[in-house]
Every structure is written in structure tokens, then in C-alpha cells.
Amino acid sequence: MPRKSTDTKNKQKAAPHDQKRKKKTDKKNQSGKSFPRIRVSRFLVMFCLKILLLITLVVILTSYLLMRYALTPVSDTRDIQGSYNEMFSEFPYLRHWTDSLNAHRALLDTTIYATDSVRLHALMIRAPKATPCTAILIHSYTQNAVRMLHLAYMYNHDLRFNVLIPDLRHCGMSEGDHVQMGWNDQSDIRLWMDIANRRFGGHTRMVVHGVGMGAFTAMCLAGGEQPPYIKAYVEDCGYSSVHDIFKYRLRRQFGLPAYPLLNIASQMSSWQYNWDFEEASCKESLQKSTLPMLFVHGGGDTYVPTDMVYELYQQKPRDKYIWVAPKATHARSFQSNPTEYRHQVRSFLNMFLYK
Fold first, then answer.
1. Share of residues in the chain with pLDDT > 70 (%)
2. Can you list the domains of the chain with their CATH numbers?
3. Is the link from the previous residue into 260 a cis peptide, with omega within 30 of 0?
């Protein structure tokens, strides 16, 4: 039988060792190929996490700045003399009227302290003759009591009413660390209602007339328990809720989405000020309202959209009237047509205030 050659034997002996070496080499190659993949994957994960963290921080910071921008706005509402000058410039007849009121001590500054010890200020104007008819006027966002003098003139000079005009918190001469957007101002206005009733005789027949943010306050008040002296409400260009108006302004003014910015800002407001934007709504209040209400809005209002007044009007079940001033912009219905404005208010009050 022929023998196998020595070379063949050596190859057979070497084969197992070669196979082991091959396996080790394959493992090295495999580990060498997979290591860069793992490294790249970790890099991508860390990069994505950092980007996500950065986006989250930007969203949180933007939400905080939006809350601060809305609730602690930079405005000249504290400039009282400047506000008088502005009103005298737009309505020259107010200068002589206020001079006459001051001469007869009929225009008074009044200060009270709220239940949380915050100092609140209001202007009080006595009627030319003793009367139970009284108007509480509530100003709009970034405004003050002085900038409601044109409506005070209508009530006091034309309709012969007593008038009280509060400075809402963080406005005019009232204290407060932020603008409450008309929501928590309800409790302060109730205090002013009671004070006005007592100061003007104790048996007043009172109308609450708000503009913008003040109109929102009036609508919120309308659904609660009513003192016997409150007879009617007038809301001029109010909004349905703080969330709704902020959502609209975010989109229109800044081109930003409401979610998640507004949701986070609302939660921040809850933490810092104990109220959030979602709860601040007058819709439920209007549904419960039983006293008469006049709805006024500007037909050209793009700050609080005109469509909103029709939604609000539908919420109230009865004793409601509406007037949309053609082409009037936000809070300018009186300025656009003062004669018709007076007529609408006078006709409305004639139906309900004197019953």
C-alpha cells in the first residue's frame, strides 16, 4: 500500500491549527468591523440627546418669556400725567370737564386694601345731582383708570351718573406683581362695587361696563351671585378666555404655535401666580348670567377678533343685545362713532336700569 507523503501528513497536522488561527482572525476582523459601528451609534445617540435637550430648554425659556411678556408687560400705564395728557389730546373737552370736577371736589382718588393687603386705587366721580345711578368702569389691558375718562364723561356728564373707575392690579396707581388678565380681578371689583354702593348712598342702581380685559372681568362677574344693586352689564370687545386670546395673539403676532408653548406658560403661571390660562374663561359664567348685557365690538377689530363677540353672545341665554361698530378697531368703538355709542348704551340702560 502506498504511503502518504510526509507533506500530506504535515498538511493534515497543520490543518487544525490553521483553522484555529482562521477563527481567531475572523473574530478579530468581526470585532474590528463592529467597533466603528458601535462608536458611530453612540455618537448619534448622544448628539440626538443633546439636540433634544437644547430644544427642550429653548421651548421652556420661550414659554417663560411669553408668560412674563403677557403678565408683566412693559407699558406706560404708571405714567398718570402722561395718561391725562393723552386723553386731553384725543378728547379736548375732557380738560375743561376734569378742571370743573376738581374745582368742585367731585373727582376723587380713593385707595383701599384688598384681602391680600395689596393697595388698590380708583377714581371716583360724583354725579352733578344726587342719584342712585352708578357706573363701574373697568379698563383694558395695559391701560389705567385715567384712560377711561371718555366713558366716564359719557356716564357722568351726559347720563348724570356717579362713576367709579378702578386701576386693576399692576396698572395705574394700584399695586400688584402682575396683570391678572381680568380673571382674579373679579374679587377686587366686587370690593369696589360694595364701596361705590356705600359711598353713593347705599341704594344704588349700578351698571358694570368693561372694555377689553375689563369686559372679560365683567362677563366673569355676570355669572356669579349678584348684589341687589347690580342691574346690568356692558362688555366692549372682551375675549372668551385667556387661553383663547393668547392662542390667537401667538399665531397672529409672533407666528408661533400654541402647543406646547402656551401649555407650558400656563403651567408656569399656575406655579408662580396660582392661576392658569385654561381656567380663566367667561363662557360658563355667561351661560349662568341672568342680568341684561349689552355686547359691543368693533367690526374691524383684529386684536380681539370680531367673530369672538358672536360666540360670546350665543353663550348668554337671554336679555342680551349686541352692537358691532362698523370698521372700528380694538377698543375704539366709542371713538369711531361716539353718538351711536351713547345711543346704544342709553337705550340699553333705559330698558333695565330704571325698572
1. 88
2. 80-241+280-352 (3.40.50.1820)
3. yes
